[in-house]
Amino acid sequence: MTHCVQQLNERSLQLLKTLVERYISDGQPVGSRILAKDSDLKLSPATIRNVMADLEDLGLVHSPHTSAGRVPTASGYRLFVDSLLTVKPLNTQDLTRLHESLSAQQDTNGAIGIASKLLAELTQMAGVVTLPKRDIVCLRHIEFLSLSNNRILVIFVTNEQEVHNKIIHTDKVFSASELQQAANYLNSIYSGRSLMSVREAVLKDLRNDQAHINQSMLDAINMAQLAFNHDSKKDDYVLTGETNLMVFSELADRTRLKNLFEAFNQKQDVIHLLDQCMKAEGVQIFIGEESGYQAFQQCSLVTSSYSIDNEVVGVLGVIGPTRMAYEKIIPFVDVTAKLLGAALNPKFTPPF
Amino acid sequence: MTHCVQQLNERSLQLLKTLVERYISDGQPVGSRILAKDSDLKLSPATIRNVMADLEDLGLVHSPHTSAGRVPTASGYRLFVDSLLTVKPLNTQDLTRLHESLSAQQDTNGAIGIASKLLAELTQMAGVVTLPKRDIVCLRHIEFLSLSNNRILVIFVTNEQEVHNKIIHTDKVFSASELQQAANYLNSIYSGRSLMSVREAVLKDLRNDQAHINQSMLDAINMAQLAFNHDSKKDDYVLTGETNLMVFSELADRTRLKNLFEAFNQKQDVIHLLDQCMKAEGVQIFIGEESGYQAFQQCSLVTSSYSIDNEVVGVLGVIGPTRMAYEKIIPFVDVTAKLLGAALNPKFTPPF
DNA sequence: GGTTAGCACTCTTCTTGCTTGAGTGCTAAT
DNA sequence: ATTAGCACTCAAGCAAGAAGAGTGCTAACC
Q: Which of B163, B255, B352 comes nearest A165 by C-beta?
């Protein structure tokens, strides 16, 4: 893509920029006459037509039919957002709205939900936020309850107030008192330490064959590990305002819309996309076909990762038609991600 | 509605029936000529036109425009399903599919999910199943964890393996040991009894001023009550195959579709409708505007309640366009409800 | 050589008018 | 009470034409 920037002179880029801006605001293919007036360059439509022909050869713009003006392609948008975009600062109304709503949230799920809702509402598109995944989980409390047939219900509370539960299957049958003992043991040695570190410590102690480590305690650790492992996999997201996408004429086609919403329901494709975004720092964008998924053909995804304690734990973003106001959406997503991170950062909690 | 049946003679009803059947299968307004051929009655189109005029006066059918044949109205459909319908037995393929899939399910949520999925898949419309609500909940285990500022995290396990959690706010501040004591007390006296009955017993004991009842125990009960109360309210449903509705031309209008899907997301209106259905035994139907909700204008909802231990605990159904094959859908929903009830019925669980 | 004016051409969109077919309502005859 | 006949209405489809927007190309211009 970058080679394009070099291949093209200043003027062509300027024209592409105005073209994209114009198309984003109007939704109509833009012709040479409009472009001549819109751009600050003093050029005649005829000249602009020549430039357009070049841009079309490079695959940056495309003409729906012979007499229809030009529309940016995915590559055109890409070049635009990468090199030509002049971002507009977030308006203060939205900023205060975001700040107030997010900082007022007490618990994680609430904050995630609100973030998703705000993304959708303020952009009038769809908002998506992944649940934060922290592999270093602090255990607050753990409880084992035996069910029938070697099945054990594990309930554990992490990070102050997140309750998880999982049914695990064990080889050995445990008595109620054994389970109680195991839970007590885990609850006593966990004081906000991460699961990994505790597990290592226990294994080390076991090797040293110290008296206070017995098999059932290791069992307990293993059970917890089992439960944690499976639970940390649950990468999921909160999607809000999907219905906003129904009004866009780009997505009017019924089967296309159906495919899109089915992808939202399946979740896997979206998760895969969001995972890719999480690897990159800062704002990450997929434009139209770039995502590689049929269902997202006409959609763009603007995301940014958010962090807790300087560690990237999730990603949030906006889904809309490729023809969206990137210059506004990009800073908006960026700021929201930062504010969500701030809202989720561990706050002071009084000792128990 | 019933007065219509009496006002109309056999012949008119017969004609209405064929009209509705024809419209359901074709989706086109049906004219007098077609009706003359379709119905077994040996009547000329002209006669039928007269009858149609009568039916139109009664508000049972409606003409989109002067030269367009007739289409059933909501009342027309209503009369049809109430008095004219000849239900078709469920085909054996679907029956075995339902039976096998549902009886294979181990846990409640799995069964609910599968039921919803089957409803959607086999009808090619949307399937909905409410989560079962049992107000006589058997408590298996309860745990209190203090958070900051009078907030207490209550975790309780009901009916073998359903884990609920709720943060409650209390006037008084409890120490960790008080909470432990309260939990122990509750865990000891609950042995599968319903919450109501225990609460009454405790209050009675308190009045009798017996030594083993103290304030903190009452607090415990109150806390549990608080947590339960709020939790039992969470009537929720599992909706599947909404996207199937996108292909129906009746719902093609984008804003209409948006409203419908927003109603699905809000949930409250749908819950209200489903609640109404739960009160009635057997299959319950809302046709088009009958529901009273704007968003469901062009939709019909066919539901049936399902029971555990002969007690109605939930409702399940199918949402589709008013023009649906009621004669198939009704028995289908009926059977699914019964099979789901059977799948959910408490099975033998070995003692712990 | 880059830029521009001019011109022929293309293609969409809108309108208009026309035809066809389906279906109705009414009336008069059976 | 039923039916045949007829005038009427309306949607949908089709063709032709006009308007408008925009292009590509060529030749002239600075």
A: B163
Q: What is the pLDDT of residues A303-340, one digit of tens each?
A: 999 998 888 999 999 999 999 999 999 999 999 999 99
Q: Residue A324 has which token pair?
A: 């969206």
CA distance B297 to B330: 20
pLDDT exceeds cutoff 50 at A152: yes
Report DSSP state, residue B147: -
The pTM of the full predicted model, rounded to 2 decimals, is: 0.86
Whether A188 has its CB under 8 Å from any CB of chain B: the answer is no
Give the residues across from A72 on adjacent strands: A61
DSSP A124: T
Q: Which two tokens stand for residue B227?
A: 């947590």
User: Whose CA is closest to A230, among A167, A153, A312?
Assistant: A167
Ramachandran quadrant class, A307 (left: phi over 0; alpha: psi -120 to 50; beta: rest): beta
| Three-class secondary structure of residue A147 per DSSP | coil
The CA distance from B191 to A176, in Å, is 15
Residues 6+ apart with CB under 8 A from B54: B8, B12
Task: Please report, for residues A181, A342, B236, the alpha-carbon distance to residue A308 in angstroms, rounded to integers and kept in the order given.
Answer: 34, 7, 32
| Angle, alpha carbons B125-B16-B94 (nearest 5°) | 30
Q: What is the pLDDT of residue B42?
A: 85
Handedness of CA A73, A77, A83, A85 (dihedral sign): positive
Cβ within 8 Å of B, A 68-107: 107
Residue in B with minimal Cα distance to A173? B352
Cα separation of B74 and B317, whole Å? 19
How far is B11 from A119, CA to CA, in rounded Å? 59
